[in-house]
């Protein structure tokens, strides 16, 4: 937190208008899962075979100068040189969030060394049934839990990372928070899903009003032991208590194609350098205020959490809001009533992958 605060203050004092906070460094797109809401693993096989070299990863990190690096994908643990990449980033004193579905985590842990710079951010979308449904893999939850427990036992920093879609049961999510806190994770990261056009399940993405309603039900009346590894101001934004515009340059994305415009989610072309990305992207064409339909329903953390972090560390009022948010339980009687309402669409539909198919084939059934 101190590193990020110092970084934001330095940038503000230097008069920088646009600066990145966390690099979304995607070393590869291939994965050992095929989640229905994923916008990454639908690339053709020749793209899925490609990956960034460690040197390309280090060059991207140095070029943009961020204090934090998120390693999503794909599944980073499938990269044959992931240990070299992680160790190189630690040597550069970067705070790394290695995002993993944890199918391989327990087996690979002996290759890594615990460090304050390294956090395993485990993709866990809720309690057992919900997670297995979300990742289209029965047993996925149990394997991920084994990985989390082993990582905590070995002294690694661990967080969980959840994406929620329409039809999510807020009571189940609150039960999930209890479960992961009991496992000894440092904090929970959460975000509403983004409606990727490439994702095979297009039915469960939410509009902004539904996002606010869901997150108000989930995040009000918090239990004292719940910890979130996110800006409290961003959580208030999800609950509908704050308004932010998108800061897409706050979490730039770099992958095998180059610097992705304008953000981790949209692909409106690529720049060869970070400077070119900053200088030549038409930023005014993105975010809700722009009227761009691709941004209309987006409340995703990679676009809006940087806005919250910059406010939190960039003004006394924002800093006070963060402190107050960290220690508040957000008591709210109306939100308690929301927890007793039936799910908006009745029983959820199940998206499953047909076994043995060369490419993922999705079919819907009723749960
Ligand atoms: S684990 Fe992540 S990268 Fe892999 S399919 Fe699921 S969402 Fe996509
Ligand atoms: S609103 Fe969402 S999709 Fe649009 S630029 Fe921002 S993060 Fe990307």
SSE layout:
Layout: H1 2-13, E1 22-25, H2 45-48, H3 54-64, E2 68-71, H4 82-91, E3 95-100, H5 105-108, E4 118-123, H6 128-134, H7 140-153, E5 157-164, H8 170-182, E6 187-192, H9 208-219, H10 232-238, E7 253-255, E8 258-262, E9 267-271, H11 274-280, H12 301-314, H13 316-327, H14 333-338, E10 349-353, E11 362-366
Parallel strand pairs: 1-2, 1-7, 2-3, 3-4, 4-5, 5-6
Antiparallel strand pairs: 7-8, 8-9, 10-11
Helix pairs in contact: 3-4, 8-9, 10-12, 12-13
Architecture overview:
The protein has 367 residues and is of the alpha/beta class. The chain has 14 helices and eleven strands. The strands form two sheets. The protein has a nine-stranded mixed sheet with strand order 6-5-4-3-2-1-7-8-9. It has a two-stranded antiparallel ribbon with strand order 10-11. β10 (349-353) and β11 form a beta hairpin. The model is unreliable at 346-367 (pLDDT under 50). Residues 246, 248, 262-263, 265-266, 286-287, 294-295, 298, 300, 302-303 line the site of one iron/sulfur cluster.
């Amino acid at each position: 937190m101190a590193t990020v605060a110092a970084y934001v203050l330095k940038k503000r004092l230097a008069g920088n208008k646009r600066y990145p906070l966390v690099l979304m460094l995607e070393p590869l797109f291939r994965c050992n899962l095929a989640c229905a809401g994923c916008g990454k693993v639908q690339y053709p096989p020749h793209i899925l075979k490609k990956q960034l070299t460690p040197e390309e990863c280090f060059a991207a990190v140095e070029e943009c100068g961020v204090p934090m690096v998120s390693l999503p994908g794909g599944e980073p643990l499938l990269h044959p040189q992931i240990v070299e990449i992680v160790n190189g980033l630690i040597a550069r004193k970067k705070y790394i969030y290695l995002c993993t579905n944890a199918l391989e985590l327990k087996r690979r842990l002996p290759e890594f060394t615990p460090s304050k710079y390294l956090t395993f951010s485990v993709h866990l979308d809720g309690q057992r049934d919900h997670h297995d449904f979300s990742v289209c893999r029965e047993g996925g939850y149990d394997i991920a839990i084994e990985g989390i427990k082993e990582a905590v036992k070995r002294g690694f920093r661990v967080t969980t990372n959840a994406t929620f879609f329409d039809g999510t049961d807020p009571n189940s999510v609150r039960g999930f928070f209890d479960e992961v806190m009991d496992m000894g994770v440092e904090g929970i990261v959460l975000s509403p899903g983004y409606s990727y056009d490439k994702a095979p399940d297009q039915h469960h993405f939410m509009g902004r009003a539904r996002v606010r309603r869901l997150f108000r039900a989930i995040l009000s009346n918090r239990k004292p032991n719940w910890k979130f590894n996110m800006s409290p101001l961003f959580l208030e934004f999800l609950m509908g208590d704050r308004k932010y515009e998108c800061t897409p340059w706050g979490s730039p994305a770099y992958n095998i194609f180059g610097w992705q415009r304008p953000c981790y989610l949209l692909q409106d072309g690529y720049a060869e350098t970070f400077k070119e990305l900053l200088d030549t992207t038409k930023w005014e064409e993105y975010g809700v205020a722009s009227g761009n339909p691709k941004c209309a329903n987006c409340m995703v953390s990679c676009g809006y959490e940087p806005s919250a972090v910059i406010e939190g560390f960039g003004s006394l009022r924002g800093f006070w809001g963060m402190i107050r948010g960290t220690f508040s339980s957000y008591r709210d009687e109306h939100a308690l009533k929301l927890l007793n309402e039936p799910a908006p669409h009745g029983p959820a539909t199940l998206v499953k992958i047909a076994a043995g198919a060369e490419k993922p084939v999705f079919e819907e059934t009723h749960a």
